[in-house]
Design a protein that fits this description.
Length: 195
């Protein structure tokens, strides 16, 4: 598995104009620093409410475990550890892909930085498949997607300013406070050598 190198972090930091401790903090908080399962499949989270939206709810009744009008934490895979949960999340993606591959691939977040598939264009890819190929290829590919997303959403300024609350809002949405995402980022930044 292609793990991120110091050179990858340095490249991303240069592209975003921030220090590399900021990028390392995002990787640590988003995925505990793991981009892939031991079997080579990217760490992912399948979002049933996104799949429902992209398929106009046509699978909600027959497949409520992978298609739901509203976000429901209980639909996420459970397991004894991150490997078992990750394997089950991939099975959810595969099940949805058998119904509508394009919608399914856009309904999951991938890798170290948990960028959603529906953001492929925002991240700078020509098509969905190019995005999927990159995030499945290596952690460097996952970093490419993250850098593209951060730039497109103009969140790089918040990384430079270490304004973790504004970054968290833009990257994770309104739920960031409930999950203390900004506080986790600030702590991870310090752990990774940030000052």
């Amino acid at each position: 598995l292609m793990r991120l190198t110091d050179a990858d972090f340095a490249r991303a930091a240069k592209a975003l104009g921030c220090d590399d401790a900021a990028i390392r903090a995002v990787a640590e908080v988003e995925s505990s620093g793991k981009g892939f399962l031991p079997n080579g499949i990217p760490v992912m989270l399948f979002e049933a409410h996104i799949f429902s939206r992209l398929t106009e709810g046509k699978y909600d009744v027959k497949y409520p475990d992978i298609s739901s009008r509203t976000w429901n934490r209980k639909l996420y895979a459970t397991g004894k550890d991150w490997i078992e949960r990750g394997t089950k999340e991939n099975q959810r993606l595969e099940k949805a892909s058998s119904l509508d591959r394009t919608a399914a691939l856009q309904s999951a977040s991938y890798g170290l930085f948990q960028v959603m598939g529906f953001n492929w264009k925002l991240c700078g890819y020509a098509n969905l498949q190019s995005f999927i190929n990159d995030v499945w290829r290596s952690e460097g590919g996952q970093l490419n997607a993250c850098v593209g997303f951060i730039k497109a959403k103009k969140l790089d300024v918040h990384l430079r300013n270490k304004d973790w609350a504004k970054f968290a809002l833009g990257y994770n949405g309104l739920g960031y406070k409930m999950n203390k995402y900004d506080e986790k980022l600030a702590a991870a930044y310090k752990r990774n050598g940030g000052v």
